[in-house]
């Protein structure tokens, strides 16, 4: 019998087609020019048509030239059009072709001269988001962004060769703090990692940790609440005794080799102090750089979803639950869009084994069951 495990998650996995992705800073999509973005190896063109965002496959139906090489022009009715740079075919904001210059102004236009639109394009938290096909889960929530008393900022946006799956996994992990973040906030108190319950509701996964945090010379205990879903985004809320910090790490799997990482950060004690905000951004840039330093040492950017490919412990239960959620999402993504089911339903009964089985007896407890 040939036994095949669950395929690993890579940046070009089909599952990414069924998710919302951060594809650009809002100001990168200007009124004047279309913008090409890559999602899981496929090119999309984003443009603002009279203020309204639209996203299409970046491929002209004529000779398949990238439409992102074209320009935004104004049609006879005064509304915006996207003109292809190769032979000038012109499309409106719904993707309909209304002019083929080589046929003249009254030429007959084939019904097939149409652009294929993305399932969705939206703007939130200063970013433009794109869903190639019907997403399994809604746009990630970030309640602290713009909340009273919280000051939001962007940490540095980076491109890395680490995979989007590896990055989310890293962001959901807490056992690496004393090692990877030894130069910033990470510290060990010699006690086992306090990894709390993992809960899943629909496709939303949440885990809680109580860990020591070094703030200057002082070590305090902080509660970290980490949330993710079947996408490349993770939300982290740090409740320290004196302040709350909340972060949205939004990773775009661009193609097999690169991931673009957007890191949005908020903090409750800035109170208009520009120097304090600058220090906060700098610290968060350093923390991301520390994570990338280990992730970029991997020779391969895949994330195993087969529970037997790695050794898990009870401290890893959130990471294990996310792997299982992504395995369910990957199975679901292979079914027709619109047939979205709850996580767990996509697997064959008996197919999913306990990830804890790969660990030493007594070492692991059963991680939270997505959908349970
Ligand atoms: S390839 Fe776009 S008009 Fe010909
Ligand atoms: Fe980290």
What does this structure look like?
With 372 residues, this protein is an alpha+beta fold. It contains four helices and 18 strands. Mean pLDDT is 90; it is low at 346-372. The chain has helices at 164-172, 177-180, 274-295, 317-333, and strands at residues 21-25, 35-39, 42-49, 52-57, 71-74, 80-83, 90-91, 97-99, 120-124, 127-131, 151-154, 158-160, 194-201, 204-215, 218-228, 233-239, 244-253, 259-267. The strands form four sheets. Strands 11, 12, 13, 14, 15, 16, 17 and 18 form an eight-stranded antiparallel β-sheet that branches. The protein has a four-stranded antiparallel β-sheet with strand order 5-6-7-8, with no helix packed on it. Strand 17 (244-253) and strand 18 (259-267) form a beta hairpin. Bound molecules: FE2/S2 (inorganic) cluster and fe (ii) ion. Fe (ii) ion binds next to loops.
Number of strands: 18
Which secondary-structure class do the elements indicate? alpha+beta
Query: What is the rounded distance between the termini?
Result: 31 Å
Please provide the ordered H/E string of secondary-structure elements: EEEEEEEEEEEEHHEEEEEEHH
* Relative strand content: 25-35%
Helix coverage percent: 10-25%
Unreliable parts: 346-372
Cα-atom Rg, whole angstroms?
23 Å
Shape: globular
Count the DSSP helices.
4
Query: What's the main sheet like?
Result: 8 strands, antiparallel
Average pLDDT reading:
90
Small molecules bound in the structure, each named once = FE2/S2 (inorganic) cluster, fe (ii) ion
